[in-house]
C-alpha cells in the first residue's frame, strides 16, 4: 500500500504540473497576441495620420480656397476679378499696372523735391571726380616721361657699348691695391671680399629668387608698353610669370660676356652728376659696375609698373564715384528716401558752420 500511494501521488503531481504549464503557455500566447494587435493598431493609426497630413499639405481644402478667394478682390486698377491663391492680384499685369501708377504718382514730387534742395554728396562727388581726373593727367604725364627715360637709357647703353676697351684703367681703379676687406652676403650670410661683393650677391639673390614663383592666370596686355613682365607660360602650374622681364632669373638668363666687350657704365661725380665719360674696362673684369644695365632697366620698368598701378586705382575710384552719383538720383533712391523741408523759404538744408 505504501508503494501504491507513492505512485498515485507522483502521478497526480505530474498531471498538475502539465496542467500548470499548459495554463502558463496559454497566458503567454494571449499576452503576445494582445501586444501584436496593439502594435498593428498603432502603426495603422500613424499611417492614417501621415496620409492625412500629406493630403492637407498638397491639396488644401477646396472649400476654404474658394471661400477666401470669393471674399478678396484684385488690387489692380479697375480690376473686379478675384485674387489668385496666395496673391493680392488676379494676374501679373494687374500688379505691374498698380506699380506703374504708384511711380507716376510719387516720382514727380520726389524729383521736384530733389531739384529744390542742393545735395552736398553730389557736390563732393563732383570734387572727387575733378581730383581723380587731375591725378590721372599727372600719371599719364609721368608715364610719358618714363617712356622717354626708357628710350634715353637704351641710347646711353648703346653709346657705352661703342666705347673702346682700355686695359690700363684696370690698374688705376681705386682700392685695387688696398687691404682686402670682408663683408657678409645679405642672402646666404657668407663672408666675401668687397671687390666681388656685387657679383656674388647678384648671383646668390638670383639663386634664391628662382625658388619662389609669381604667376597669374592671364598674360599682361598693356597698350603701348614694352618690356615689362616676363609672361612666360608654365604648363605645370598653368600660370604666366609676373616678374619683371629684365630681373626674371628663371626665364631670362644672362648671356655670356665676350672678352672684348666693354663695361660702358656712365661715370658719375658727386653721386648724381654725370661726367659724360664711360667705364672702359672689360665687362668680365669690372666688379664695380656688375649688371649695371639690368639694374638701370629694372629701375625704370619698376617706376612704369607703379604708374600703371596708380592709373588702375584711379580708374576704380572713378567708377565707384560715378556709380554712386548715378544711383543717388535713381528711381529706387528717389522712391525710398525723402527729405522733409519744414521751412519753404530755405532752399539749402545743410547746416552752416560759423567761421
TrEMBL record:
It comes from the Eukaryota. Residues 1-23 form the signal peptide. One of its GO terms (molecular function) is DNA binding. GO terms for cellular component: Set1C/COMPASS complex. It is found in: Nucleus. Keywords: Coiled coil, DNA-binding, Metal-binding, Nucleus, Signal, Transcription, Transcription regulation, Zinc, Zinc-finger. Pfam families: CpG_bind_C. This is CXXC-type zinc finger protein 1. It comes from Camelus ferus. The lineage of its organism: Eukaryota, Metazoa, Chordata, Craniata, Vertebrata.
